[in-house]
Amino acid sequence: MWLEILQEAGIKFTVFNTRQIYPDNVILDLAAALAEKTGVSINNTMHFFGKCFVRFFSNLGYDCMIKATGRYFCDFLQSVDNIHMQMRFTYPKMKSPSMYITHIDPHGVVLIYRSTRQGFTHYFMGQLFQIAKDLYETTLDIRVLESSNNIPGSRNVMVKFRIDFDNRDYVAKTNRMKTPIGQELAPVSCGLLLRLFPFGVVMNSEMRIEGAGEKLLQVWGGNSSILNRHICEIFKLRRPKGISFSWRNVIYLYSVMFELELIRSNEVISSSQSCPENPGSSGLDRKGSQGARSILLKGQMRYIDDIKAIIFLCSPLINSLDELPNMGLYLNDLNPHGMSREMVLAGWQHCDRLEMMFERAEQRSHELETSYALLDRWKNKSDELLYSMIPQTVADRLRAGVNPLDTCESFESMSVLFCELCDFDYSTIEGVMDIVSSMNAVFSCFDSLMDKFNVYKVETVGRIYMAASGAPDRTKDHARNIADVSLQLINCVRSLKLPSGIDIQIRIGIHSGPAVAGVVGIKVPRYCFFGDTVNTASRMQTTGLPGKVHISPDTKALLPVDRYHTESRGVLWVKGKGNMETYWLSENKNSPKNNNLKKK
Questions:
Q1: Quick one: which of 215, 206, 181, 235 has its CA closest to 331?
Q2: Are the CB atoms for 208 and 228 separated by under 8 Å?
Q3: Can you tell me the distance from the alpha carbon of 489 to that of 12, in angstroms, rounded to the nearest whole number?
Q4: pLDDT single digits (tens) 217-261
Q5: What is the rounded CA–CA span in Å between residue 455 and residue 364?
Q6: How many CB atoms lie within 10 A of CB 154?
Q7: Residue 182, SS3?
């Protein structure tokens, strides 16, 4: 079924590697092909694919990471973006969706889903169903409240879901956290907070910067010119993707990790480019205009009620030690109370080992792909060899586990042809080699005619060529098929260009009647025919003449008079049969078939 789906979807891949990037349409094409094959709708198929993906990554151990996000399913929904952000280190080119919760109550949540890929809404719903069932033992009821495939200023998909489930425990926990714990402490000044987070930013409800950390000001240019400026003039929103950088969205996404790209002070940004309604439009390039690498800040947006402002508690996002000089930073600039320094150094130490592991994995994947291609190639060759010895219908039954004795069948009426190449000269070695090459050419020509006339080639023994029609595939036109192919064999030999001095003649004998056929042999199985019909056809061939088609009266009775011309040879004594009136067969020149050919 899998190979048929791949073929119908037009997909050349047979093995999918975890770290290789594939076009987005691959899974959609697979879903469409499977839906057509099974009669299930594409939406249900994509929903099924989403469930399968959860079971797939659970086998790889990623379910442990999801379970670790929180005790409740609502915790997971609020942490999905954070999980995707962490996965970027393992899969740096993964195009993950973005989602956030706008409403929470004891009976469920309202979830906003945004993605840059079209057609994956039901795939996402299937994932939610399976995660809730397997990891949180919760059943969901998901309804689509709003859906938009064309958000102004972007190519994103936005879907608003209402997800109903038992959310009472989470709401109760949240209410308990809002109650005061012990003695209230005195407020802390924002200046102290920004010294603890030297890259932090404070912004008011108009999204204008009211304060910034010392290191951030130093990287910007050592002055306070960023104060009172709109946040989009200084930063580009990298994550969450597909949303506008507005006060309302930041309040909704308080539990999501934000990623901002610092715009260098020497970059000229027009107000239209920094418009919050078109977020991240030019934020994919991390190179500044002077070749310096832009600084990415990652952290949490928290609303501080005392100052009625949002503070961005962040640290620089650094993938390797080599990026520090390009950013104009040093290890001492990073937060001393965080893990930034340790992660940078650990990444530098293990980089070579990871690259080696990735290279080995890619090499093994490539070898596996090559092995599958070779397997298919050799399988096709073995099929061709098997079908040359046994008919395909019979061979498929044997592969299904049928006993070889059960393939024996009796056929009430069929036609058998024997053809012999005669008048050979075996006096010299050169003559024998010429004869072998001539026989190969003649028999190859014969083989090409068999399928055309629905005739099965039984075997070749020396100079004898045996064929049959009506078995293993039953047909009432078996006599006509054999007669047509015998006349074509005569013409084929006449038209072949053989080595000089060789003039091959053939004599053909045909008989029709009942016979038994089946597979004989274990080491070298063959599909053989048994019965008086086979013996009589062989007698017709041995008593025939070169260049003639010799047929029995039983075959003559089955041939239409207007299509063939038969000439009585008279009464002939046939070994094992006694006296028998036989006939020479030729094509009727005045048959409707020939008249149509002449007109054409």
A1: 215
A2: yes
A3: 41
A4: 877 765 557 788 888 888 888 877 767 788 888 887 777 778 888
A5: 47
A6: 19
A7: coil
